[in-house]
Amino acid sequence: MKKKSSTWKTVFWIVTILCILQFLFIRLPQIRETPNVTGTYILGSLIPNGLIILIFWFIKRKSEK
User: Fold this and answer.
1) Contact by Cβ (8 Å): 37, 31
2) 30-59: average pLDDT
3) Which of 8, 52, 57, 65 is the most buried if burial means most Cβ atoms within 10 Å?
């Protein structure tokens, strides 16, 4: 059981790092080029990555129990 938990923990951190890098290097330059950007637009661009991280966090948490 410990091995399965460790695997999901590693997968969770890899996915989290990839989502952060994707936001920094792909979405952030697009946001900077868009005129009249509001906080809602920035928050909306964070939602897809946030959902992906949340799903993997639930999986990791379930495997630890």
Assistant:
1) yes
2) 90
3) 8
pLDDT for 35-48, tens place per residue? 888 888 888 889 99
d(CA 26, CA 16): 15
Helix (H) or strand (E) holding 7: helix 2-22
Cβ contact 16:55 at 8 Å: no
Question: Which among 53, 65, 48, 62 is positioned nearest to 16, based on CA atoms?
Answer: 53
Q: What is the pTM of this model?
A: 0.81
20: number of CA atoms within 13 Å, CB side?
A: 6
In which region does residue 36 sit, left (phi positive, over 0), alpha (psi from -120 to 50) or beta (all else)? left
Sign of the torsion angle spanned by Cα atoms 32, 36, 40, 45: negative
